[in-house]
Amino acid sequence: MLQFLSFFIEPLHIICFYILFCTQNWQYIREARSNKFIKLAISVIILVVIQVVIELGLIPIPWLFFLCTNVVTILFLIVITYLCLRRHANSDLTLRINVLLSMDIFIAIQIFCAFLDKSLMVICRNITVVHPMLVVVIIHNIIEAALSFFMGIISARLYKLNRIIDKKVDRQVHRIVVVMFIIMYALTLIFTVMQKLYDHVENLLIFLIIQLIFFWILYFSINRREKQRIHNELVENRLSNLKEYTDHLEQEQRKLRKFKHDYQNMLLSLEENLRSSDSQDAKDYLQTFKQYSDNYISESGLWMFNDFDNVKTPYLKSILINKTSQATEQGIDVHFECRYDVDQIAMEPYDLVRIVGIAYDNAIEAVRNLDKNHRKINVMVYRTKGQTEVTIANPMQTAENLTHLKKEGVTTKKGHSGLGLANIEEISANYSNVLVNYREVKGWFTIQFTIMDK
Length: 454
Hints:
By secondary structure, this protein is an alpha+beta fold. The protein contains 14 helices and five strands. Helix 4 runs antiparallel to helix 5, helix 5 runs antiparallel to helix 6 and helix 9 packs across helix 11. The protein is elongated, with a radius of gyration of 33 Å. It comes from Ligilactobacillus aviarius. Keywords: Coiled coil, Membrane, Transmembrane, Transmembrane helix.
């Protein structure tokens, strides 16, 4: 009976690991394609079948039994999970952190259950109905599965992997998780090979718990430091953009004073012409005067920044001013509209700045090389009851598959990585109140962010 039960021990460990992995990374799992899970399931089944065949002795090679041990299964699970679920062929840093962190926690859970086995064997030794070891194994796996589920939920709340603050932070966390895994795995492997795991399980458990606590302390300190850096950067950019906005207004004010001076002189000249008898000269002069006034008023950038006063959210106003100035400097005609006050947006400032900045940059890149008649961008910020809408539209040279463009690594621009729309999707996925809509109508590409109040 016990020999038959031993065939199920490793498969049960594998199930417990994936309970932990899925609960910790549910957001990531939900976005992955179903064919990736089919590949993962097939790979795991093949691994289990190979282990069962080896344990049954159908392959008479003694050293192959090492492939059935827990320490080898851990490595197989890491490699299989990463290769089957990664989003693209080159690398997936987020997934590597996901898998390694899940395995770090799972190793600690296994050591904790091994520690409990000592007490369980003492409690169950007097059971006569069934073999005591059978009861220990059943209780062990129930506890392991329950701990995997609850630790997955706790870990998901503590470490929101999909809320990437900065790629640099992700790389720092990745290094910490790799070092932590190497230490955990090395100690487990050493004690397993020496067959002294149960003799030192208490000390190993204490060490692993301390290491996990140390990881969370490091993570929160890095996270807090990076949030402060980003806040300071946002404030600095806001001040810089505000200065640029003020300088632009001063420049337009000087142009307006000059126009007023010229306007007065031309009125005096027109008055003299009207007094003369040659009415045709007066008509010609009047036409020239009208054309001059119309051209100046239409070309003046003063009117372009009129509606910015209605954007009361400082970080949104800052990024819109910055990108609008960049666009106009490159000869792009920007039409900005915000007719009503926008004073609150239910989204983190850094994420809001990122998605609007990415969308605006994409629009600039799309039209900068078009002919003058098509070098246009329309931006609208609209506040209605319960939500705020930000819309950015630009002409397109050719119609594109919008679903295809939202994938990471896909772009229509030469020399670009194609991470823009993919990053927008990644950021917006963390907000249940944010909707992103893409559409292409009559040669215009439009991206619309709808941010509902919480």
